[in-house]
Every structure is written in C-alpha cells, then in structure tokens.
TrEMBL record, chain A:
This is Glutamine ABC transporter permease. PROSITE patterns: ABC_TM1. Gene3D superfamilies: MetI-like (1.10.3720.10), Periplasmic binding protein-like II (3.40.190.10). It is a multi-pass membrane protein. One of its GO terms (biological process) is amino acid transport. One of its GO terms (cellular component) is ATP-binding cassette (ABC) transporter complex. SUPFAM superfamilies: MetI-like, Periplasmic binding protein-like II. The keyword Transport applies. Keywords: Cell membrane, Membrane, Transmembrane, Transmembrane helix, Transport. It comes from Glutamicibacter uratoxydans. The keyword Transport applies. Residues 290-479 form the ABC transmembrane type-1 domain. Belongs to the binding-protein-dependent transport system permease family.
UniProtKB/TrEMBL annotation, chain B:
GO terms for molecular function: ATP binding; ATP hydrolysis activity; ATPase-coupled polar amino acid-transporter activity. This is ABC-type polar-amino-acid transporter. It catalyses: a polar amino acid(out) + ATP + H2O = a polar amino acid(in) + ADP + phosphate + H(+). InterPro entries: AAA+_ATPase (IPR003593), ABC_ATPase_HisP-typ (IPR030679), ABC_transporter-like_ATP-bd (IPR003439), ABC_transporter-like_CS (IPR017871), MetN_ABC_transporter-like (IPR050086), P-loop_NTPase (IPR027417). It comes from Glutamicibacter uratoxydans. PANTHER family: AMINO ACID IMPORT ATP-BINDING PROTEIN, ARGININE TRANSPORT ATP-BINDING PROTEIN ARTM. SMART domains: AAA.
Length: 488, 244
C-alpha cells in the first residue's frame, strides 16, 4: 500500500543547512511533540500519532472530525490501554517524515507492512488485510476485465500496491499506468475519461463507491498486503506493545469487526445530496481553514516586514559585510522553492535541533522568510527610488542619517512601496496554501479533507477558490483604502 | 575684513581617479557675500558641498564657523546647523506642508517645541512673502515659490552662513527676480553667503567678491567691478566673453 519508498531521512541533510538552522534558532519557538520514549508503561501518557489526510475509509474528515477505521481502532485501543493520543493528519509521506524526525511517536495511515519499511520502523501485528481491485466509470460498459484494457491508460496511486500490481500486468494486457497522488483525483480522472480504470485498495474503492464517487468495480480483489501501525525502530516499544495488546482484545470481543462493518459493509453516505448541502456541510471546516490562512499570513507578513526593512537597509548600506548578508539572505530565499523550506523547517530542523517544531512555527518561518526576501527587495527599490536630493536636503539641515531616513526618506519610500507590498501580501496569502504539504490546516487543506471524504472534488475546489477570491478581494480593498488614508 | 567665517586651505577632492578640486584656498569673512562663477564642470558645486561635508574631503583643510570640518571627530550635524543650503532643484519634502518643511529641523533637533517652531516658520514665510502658503503642499507651488520656501527652510535653524547652488537655474525667467530679491535682502541683512551662480548681473550687484573657478582651481578673484570690468586672466576673459 502507499509508498514503498522510504521517507526522507533528515539525518542526511548537509552541513550548510545546519549552519543556517542555527542562525534561525532565535526565531524558533516550537512546542515539541510530547515524545514519551523508552518508558515502561503507557498509562496516562499522551502520544502524538501521525496519519494521512485523504485515505478514506481509514482516515478522513466528516463534519470537521477526523474519523475512519484507523482512527476508530486507534481510539479504541487507547481507551482500552489507558493512554491518550493526539492525532496529526499530515499526509502519508509527511507523516513518515515526521516519524523519522521524531515529530510524532507513531504512524497509523493504512500503511502496508513491507520488508523495506521494516528496516526503519517497527510494526504492530497487522490490523487489516487489504487487496487491490480495479474500478471503471459507472456508465462504462466496454471494460469488463483486464483484457479490455489494451492500448488504454489506467491510474494508480503513487507508490501503492495498486500501482505495483497494475504495472506487473500492464505488459501482458498492453495498457499504460499513470500514477497520481490522491484517491479523489484518481477517481476524477477516471470519471473525466483521461484514464479508463483505476487500481486501488479494495476498502478504499468500496468506500468511495458507497459515497457515490461514480465508479464501479469490475474485477475480483487480488489479495495483498496487510496494514500495520508503525513506530521508529527500537523506540516507543511500550506503545507498540500496548497497541498489539489492545488489538488482540478488540478482535476477541468483537469491537474490531464492528468497526470494519461500520465502514466497509454498510457505510453511511457522507456525501451531501446537492451543492448547497455541500456548501452548508463544508462551511465550518472551510471557515476554520480561512481563519488559519489569514492568521498565518498576517503573522508571517508582519515578520516579513521587519526582516524586509532590516535586510532592505542592509542592502543599501555602505558596509560591504551588511550588503553581503542581505544579498545572501535575499538570494537564498528567492532562489529556492517555498515548499522546500516548509519541509526543511518541519522535518529537517527538529532533527538538527533535537526539539520539535510546531506546524505553526514551521509555517510562519517558511512564509515570513520567503516574503521577507521579497519585501527586502521592495524596500531597497522603494528607498532607492526616492530622489537623493531629499536625503541631502535633510542632512544639510543638520538631521542625522537615521532621523533623515525616518522623517524624510522612508515616508516617501513607503508611498511608492505600498502597491508592491500589497501585491506581496496577496502572494503570501496564496502561497500559504503550500503549507498543506506539512499538514497545516489552512483553507485548501480543509478543502482536500472534504473531497477526500465525499469525492466531490470539482465542487469543493470551486467553493475553496471562491473563498480565496473573496478573501483576496476584500484584502486588496482594505489595503487600498489604508493606502489612500495614510499615503495621501 | 574682520572675522574669518570660512577658511579653505589647499582643498583637494577627487571622485575615484577624477581630480575635481585641485588645491583651493579661500577665506571668507563674516558678512561677506561671495559669488562663485565658472564653466560647467569646473567644480563649483563640489566646492560648495565640501563646505558642509555633503562630499567627503580628499585632503586639505576646511574650517567653517570655527569648526574644523575635516576633523573626523567633529559633529558634522552640529556644523550643518550653522550652515544653511539652498539647492538648484529646491528639494522640498513633498509629503509635508510648507510650514512642516520649515519646522522639521527645529522640532526634530529639539530647538523649539511645535508651537514655537510654527510661529518661527510663519515669520520666515512672511519674510519670503509666502505666509498664506503655510499649509499648502509644495507640489501646489510655482518654482519661484518653492525656492523661496527652500530658503525659509534653510534659515530655520538661524544659520550664520548660507550656501546657494544655482538657486535660480531651474526657474522660469519670470520667477528668477522674486528669488533674487529674497537673496538680496538676505545679503543686505549681513548674512555670510557663498553663491554659485550663472546670473552675472546679479553677481555684479550683490557680491562683495567674485571668484572665478576653472578646472578645479580658483583662477581669478576680485571685486565684481574689477573682475567683470577688467579681468586679468585669459581664461576669465574667455569665459566672460561667452556669458556676458
Ligand atoms: N558624485 C560624483 N561622483 C563622481 N563624479 C562627480 C560627482 N559629483 C561631481 N562629479 C564630477 O565632478 C566634476 C565637477 O562637478 P561639479 O558639479 O562640481 O561642477 P560645477 O562646476 O558645479 O558644474 P555645473 O556648472 O555644471 O553645475 C564633474 O566632472 C563631475 O562629473
Ligand atoms: Mg554645479
């Protein structure tokens, strides 16, 4: 299932990143995950567990609550064994990266137990036996089996068993395999006709079909791997033992079968009946997302302004060292993708520092440093666009450099900078959506969570897009109003 | 000549390899009005800007109002409060009203509180004939009015010396007169002044002494009637034949 690749190992990060990280240490105020390691009893402890975002019926959001087979099993075991869990839905690869970085204690994410993974993680007893099945669009009468796939394209999830299986028979039946990242997007491409069939885990398919994802299964399931709960090798042994113990008890007392039936035999239709129902159902989660988007953007932009002013002034300084520092800062953060830093701060930095970093801290660091580099250039440009005669006139009156800057140059520079700053603010707001990759619960992330559970991809994205549009329009209007008000 | 107000000895100034001032000696007495003339690029502006250290001095000595400007320990901001400067392009602060332009230095340098500074600004504006423009923005003024405000601003710290760098060159001809009138009144009030100018008629009228610069040196200097009426140097004669 899912990735057979190993998750990135931050241990391999090179030295220069370490140097950089130390420079940023001052900015870091992360709350470490509650990492209870190597203790004897789990009772009364709280463990941080990472999981996927979009793997219904194992984990998905329903009315804002994280639910699914994995969640129910985890919660039942936790209750049985007397420990608490704090679940972070990060996405599959991100959850594994977080485990390696000790940002989480364990991962439960519909993850197959493979020999490859066993080298890095310790797995619980299997808690689910899976298998691959093929599905096509509901109205497709042409594809009834693998023989009908000749010359066609099918989709499978990147790194999943479905992909492995599809590839293993692709030559024999003469079809192409295209790999995608999420179940929901795979189903969309089958419905839209860009692929004729999807190979996916049977429970996932079964659940999606029950939710009205517009597909039907056409082959028998091919027995496949089994899912397990994972901890870092040699760590959290008590947690693992408790998981196994609880699982055995659940299987014995019938709780386990009840959970499977709930999601697989007769899943309640979670999908809203119409568009307005969808809007109404998804609204609370999307508003939480919007709020997080706005807060992370505002906090980051405030820091970016401070950084931008500082480095913008360094950039025009006559001191070659300060200029060098500013140029380096600007080039590093303008010359590298935002997403790279999000991963670096969330997965890499905790490994280097030995303390956990909250997703908020990582998100704000990422956005503020990126925007700070652009703001520095805006500040430099703004100051340099002020007639040098202005500074000379002020200096000739006997005002010092600082006072002259403050009273004469900066007010004029700001006036010229305002449109660019508003522009950068909007870019930062949109860029904050990239933080979904580290599981930051912003607007687009909430949208993904919603369509991962109900498979209404297009409509959900439309709603999300509309909210972004309105938010940005409002922000632009507000900024322009403030500009007129203060920069007349 | 009584008190020496400005003392320039063997002043050199170069921009990189470009030697602009090549050994200037010039003493200016208190209350003296000196006009500096000369061809474009001869270093007139550079000389003026060395007097209040808007340009770093390469070598030589400049003493202004008792302060050794070339001494690295001198508080240059303190020196500049004794020296007002008026620029060719006015350099008024566009984001402030006319009165605020004038009040900036007295208020920021804590010489006066805002009320006093405003009263002083109005007094100065009255002196240059622009009292009614106190609350206008500089952008709404004509060139001549802007330059008169700039003069009022330069006077706000009550300097003992005023420097003018082609104060009328950027003005439409019909506005030159009003600015020259203000400068002339200042000269008559006993202010020590150094004016770089292309207005030969004005120089002849207002100056106690005219300095002719060429190629980074003082080529010839003297009373206006001597220098304009009977120039000794060939370069001076050549220059004057072109501009008069
Ligand atoms: N900041 C500077 N950097 C480099 N060179 C400069 C600078 N300022 C002036 N110069 C050079 O110094 C020389 C003298 O310039 P300056 O402005 O003093 O001449 P000027 O006599 O005032 O001429 P004008 O009548 O055209 O104003 C010119 O060759 C000019 O190019
Ligand atoms: Mg000049």
């Amino acid at each position: 299932m899912e990735n057979t690749k190993t998750a990135p190992r931050p241990r391999l990060l090179t030295r220069w990143i370490a140097a950089l990280a130390i420079g940023m240490l001052a900015l870091v105020a992360g709350a470490p995950a509650s990492l209870a390691q190597g203790s004897d009893s789990v009772e009364g402890k709280t463990f941080v567990i990472g999981t996927d975002t979009t793997f219904a019926p194992f984990e998905f959001r329903q009315d804002g609550e994280l639910t699914g087979i994995d969640m129910d099993i985890l919660n039942t075991i936790a209750e049985e064994e007397g420990f608490k869990v704090e679940v972070r839905s990060l996405g599959f690869s991100a959850a594994l990266a977080a485990l390696s970085a000790n940002q989480v204690d364990g991962v439960i994410a519909g993850m197959s137990i493979t020999d490859e993974r066993k080298k890095i993680y310790d797995f619980s007893e299997p808690y689910f036996e899976s298998g691959v099945q093929m599905a096509v669009a509901k109205n497709n009468e042409d594809i009834k089996g693998y023989e009908d796939l000749k010359g066609k394209t099918v989709v499978a999830k990147t790194g999943s068993e479905g992909e492995t299986y599809a590839k293993s028979i692709a030559g024999k039946y003469g079809f192409q395999v295209k790999s995608l990242d999420q179940s929901a997007t795979m189903y969309e491409s089958v419905k839209s006709g860009s692929a004729v069939a999807v190979f996916d885990d049977y429970p996932v398919l079964a659940y999606g079909i029950a939710q009205g994802n517009g597909l039907k299964t056409v082959t028998d399931k091919v027995p496949g791997g089994s899912y397990g709960f994972a901890v870092n090798k040699g760590e959290n042994t008590a947690l693992l033992a408790a998981f196994n113990d609880g699982l055995a008890k659940m299987k014995a007392n019938g709780e386990y079968q009840k959970i499977l039936d709930k999601y697989l035999a007769d899943p309640a239709a979670a999908a809203p009946s119409n568009f307005f129902d969808l809007v109404a159902k998804s609204f609370p989660a999307l508003m939480t997302g919007l709020w997080h988007t706005l807060v992370v953007t505002a906090a980051s932009f405030a820091i970016a302004m401070v950084l931008g002013l500082l480095f913008g002034f360094f950039k025009i300084s006559s001191n070659i060292v300060l200029r060098g520092i500013a140029t380096t800062f600007i080039n590093i953060f303008r010359g590298t993708p935002l997403l790279l830093w999000a991963f670096m701060f969330y997965f890499g930095l905790p490994q280097l520092l030995g303390v956990g970093i909250s997703v908020w801290t990582a998100g704000i660091l990422t956005l503020s440093l990126n925007a700070g580099a652009y703001v520095a250039e805006i500040v430099r440009g703004g100051i340099q666009s002020v007639d040098p005669g202005q500074l000379e006139a002020s200096r000739s009156l006997g005002l010092g450099y600082g006072k002259s800057m403050q009273k004469v140059v900066i007010p004029q520079a700001f006036k010229m900078m305002t449109p660019s700053l508003i522009n950068q603010l909007i870019i930062s707001l949109k860029d904050s959506s990239l933080l979904l990759a580290i599981g930051f619960t912003e607007l687009l992330y909430q949208g993904q969570q919603i369509y991962a559970a109900n498979f209404r991809v297009t409509e959900t994205l439309l709603i999300v897009g509309f909210i972004y549009f309105i938010a940005i329009m409002a922000l632009t209007k507000l900024a322009n109003y403030a500009d007129k008000r203060f920069n007349k | 000549m009584s008190n020496v107000k400005i003392q320039v000895s063997d002043l050199h100034k170069s921009f990189g390899s470009n030697n602009v001032l090549k050994g200037i000696d010039l003493d200016i007495a208190e209350g003296e009005v000196v006009c500096v003339i000369g061809p474009s690029g001869s270093g007139k502006s550079t000389l003026l800007r060395c007097l209040n250290k808007l340009e770093d001095i390469t070598s030589g000595k400049v003493v202004v109002d008792g302060f050794d400007v070339t001494d690295p320990k001198v508080d240059i901001n303190e020196v500049r409060r004794h020296v007002g400067m008026v620029f060719q392009h006015f350099n008024l602060f566009p984001h402030m009203s006319v009165a605020e332009n004038i009040m900036l230095a007295p208020v920021e340098l804590k010489k006066m509180n805002r009320t006093e500074a405003r009263a002083k600004a109005l007094e100065l504006l009255e002196r240059v004939g622009l009292k009614e423009k106190a609350d206008a923005r500089p952008s709404s003024l004509s060139g001549g009015q802007k330059q008169r405000v700039a003069i009022a601003r330069a006077l706000a710290m009550a300097p003992g010396i005023m420097l003018f760098d082609e104060a009328t060159s950027a003005l439409d001809p019909e506005m030159v007169g009003e600015v020259l009138q203000v400068i002339k009144e200042l000269a008559d009030s006993g202010m020590t002044m150094v004016l770089v100018t292309h207005e030969m008629g004005f120089a002849r009228e207002v100056a106690d002494r005219v300095v002719f610069m060429a190629d980074g040196v003082v080529c010839e200097q003297g009373k206006p009637e001597d220098l304009f009426g009977n120039p000794q140097q060939a370069r001076t004669q050549d220059f004057l034949s072109k501009v008069l």
